[in-house]
Design goal:
Elements lengths: L3 H10 E7 L3 H14 L9 E4 L5 E9 L15 E8 L1 H14 E10 L4 E9 L1
Antiparallel strand pairs: 1-3, 1-4, 2-3, 4-6, 5-6
Length: 126
């Protein structure tokens, strides 16, 4: 049985990750890196939103980043990916650290509140 404290910890550790302006292959590489960095994160699946002509424009998943990420190797990536992160400040910082291990990361803007942080990144192959 999960206690209220455990549920609260997991909720504050959840980070919604979106990937846009990229190929499906690039989005899958990003998601693979996140799965390896946070292996204890329950698989939420990937939500695909069709864009014009049925082409996918947004890939989305939720990562539970309660603990520091497992180290990942630099990854190849065809082009760039716009990545949005939204969640608890510590959890978002952990996801950024995981992405920085695997890719070249450019911070394109951050909005932080008391209990939530949003980060806009551009990633490319390291």
């Amino acid at each position: 049985m999960t206690s209220d404290a455990d549920a609260s910890r997991q909720s504050s550790a959840e980070v919604v990750v979106t990937a846009t302006r990229c190929s499906e292959e690039a989005a899958r590489v990003l998601l693979d890196v996140l799965e390896r960095a946070f292996p204890d994160s329950p698989a939420e699946g990937v939500a695909l939103e069709p864009g014009p002509h049925g082409k996918t424009t947004v890939w989305c998943t939720t990562v539970v980043a309660a603990d520091p990420p497992a180290t990942t190797e630099p990854m190849g990536l065809d082009g760039t990916v716009d990545v949005g992160l939204q969640g608890g400040p510590r959890a978002v910082d952990r996801v950024v650290a995981a992405l920085t291990d695997a890719f070249v990361v450019e911070d394109r803007g951050t909005m932080a509140g008391d209990q939530e942080k949003e980060v806009d990144l551009l990633i490319r192959a390291g």
